[in-house]
Amino acid sequence: MTESKTTTQKMTLPSDQDASGRTLGQDELDLLAQAIGTGKLFAPKGRFVKELETRFAEMLGASSAYACTSGSAAIHTAIAAIDPEPGDEIITTSVTDMGALTPILYQGAIPVFADVDPITCNVTAETIEERLSDRTKAIIVTHLFGSPCDMTAIMQLADSRGIPVIEDCAQSFMAEHRGRKVGSFGAVGCFSLQQGKHITTGEGGLVVSNDPAIARRLFLYINKAWGYGDEKPDHYFLALNYRMNEITGAVAVAQLGKLREVADRRVASAARLTSLLAGLPGITTPPVPKGDVHTFWKYCLNVDPEVIQGGSPGLGGALKEVDIPSAPRYIQKPSFMCQIFREQRTFGSSRWPFTLARPEAVDYDPAKFPGTMQGLERILVLPWNEKYTDDHVRFIADAVRSSVTKLAR
Ligand SMILES: Cc1ncc(COP(=O)(O)O)c(C=O)c1O
Predict the structure, then answer these.
(1) How many CA atoms lie within 13 A of 270 on its CB side?
(2) Active-site residue (options: 137, 197, 258, 298)
(3) Cβ–ligand 1 contact at 244 (below 6 Å)
(4) For a disulfide at 316, which of 51, 200, 326, 331, Cβ 3.0-4.6 Å?
(5) Helical spans, DSSP H, in 223-281
């Protein structure tokens, strides 16, 4: 790769994997000390998780929010609230985190993968429509990298069929579609507080809803379906303990107070990079439709291998020479190519619930997913966080520019 050596000076970028790229500090320590001082670390007896839930619901304009232990738990809770019958189908995306997928199988439903737009790697109303069947019980959309899906078209389609939508907002806190926050369009919005998210408690999650019946089931599912506060409480149905504790809740409350600024900083620094990269051959910067807000969990470039030698991995290799990390492909392979789906590895040797699936629902022929195959081949995902200064952004822009100049055919 000698021909791709860049001349850019090295610079260490802040990372979301340690304090350099996180907003954790004295505010979190103060609330943590308060939580510990009360001796009440169990959320139903404490104040921090309740405060988190109230403030998060207000921020999203949702009538209810409940905290839970992870983004995966949030997705699981949302699916359990929809309560599919075994073998019901849930349409999802071929480009997402596994934590958004395995809960479908745990609830006995069949994940049916929709293709994605090759530039944003988001599902669209068209790709979802292709996978609808009379067994479709729900649709899960992931707003990937902080970029909102076209919720106008998706909700129109879903509403016309009476199918609930779950929004996976793990990567898209404060993102907006046509002036409205993601997470507030569908039946449930799901969020993650894992280490690398916009705000973090290491692990953690949240679900929001505007539907009182769904909200009730979300609350119950997180609480082993125990009817806290009811006159004659019981364990009403099969459910888990996904409760957040007060230690996590205290840190989350402090983090929540910083979310607006975190999102704004990411948006501003990403806009700066987009303007600095304008006009580069073979590079498509993240599109942001008018009226939408992309909150840049990551900054995702699209690299045309016909123009850039080595395509996305080639450019990633050149950036690595100046210590700029990047992830070609984002995920190594489309979700449907992972062993869990291809070999149907679930409960013992039963293959359940795949045994209930229509053959077309579990047809993972890559030829049926052209957007996914092209998108993953071409994307180059740059880490992003709220600590990036103008100098960091200029450094990245200079490195991309000089690498592209050297690699352009
Ligand atoms: C889109 C998406 N959905 C779900 C999850 C699962 O969240 P968690 O890791 O908090 O379980 C993640 C990431 O971590 C994610 O990025």
Answers:
(1) 28
(2) 197
(3) no
(4) 326
(5) 246-256, 259-276
Among protein residues, the one whose CA lies closest to atom 12 of ligand 1 = 97
Q: Amino acid letter at 342?
A: R
The residue with tokens 């395509």 is 311
Cis, peptide link before residue 353, omega less than 30° from 0: yes
For the Cβ of 200 lying below 6 angstroms from any atom of ligand 1, the answer is no
pTM above 0.90, yes or no: yes
Beta strands in 94-196 (DSSP E): 110-114, 136-142, 165-168, 176-177, 180-181, 188-192
The tokens describing 85, both together, are 């019958």
CB of 77 within 6 A of ligand 1: the answer is: no
310: left (phi over 0), alpha (psi -120 to 50) or beta: left
pLDDT number for residue 8: 56
Ligand 1 neighbour 87 (Cβ under 6 A): no
Q: Is 290 a catalytic residue?
A: no
pLDDT in tens, 200-235: 999 999 999 999 999 999 999 999 999 999 999 999
**Token pair belonging to 321:** 């020479």
Asked if 388 and 394 touch (Cβ cutoff 8 Å), the reply is: no
Segment 120-162, tens digit of pLDDT: 999 999 999 999 999 999 999 999 999 999 999 999 999 999 9
Q: Whose CA is nearest to atom 10 of ligand 1?
A: 71
Phi first, then psi, for residue 138 (nearest 5°) are -160, 165
- What is the rounded CA–CA span in Å between residue 24 and residue 20? 9
CA distance 331 to 337: 11
Please give the pLDDT value at position 10.
Answer: 81
Which residue from 70, 72, 76 has its CB within 8 A of the most atoms of ligand 1, so it is best to mutate?
Answer: 72
Ligand 1 center to residue 39 CA distance, Å? 30
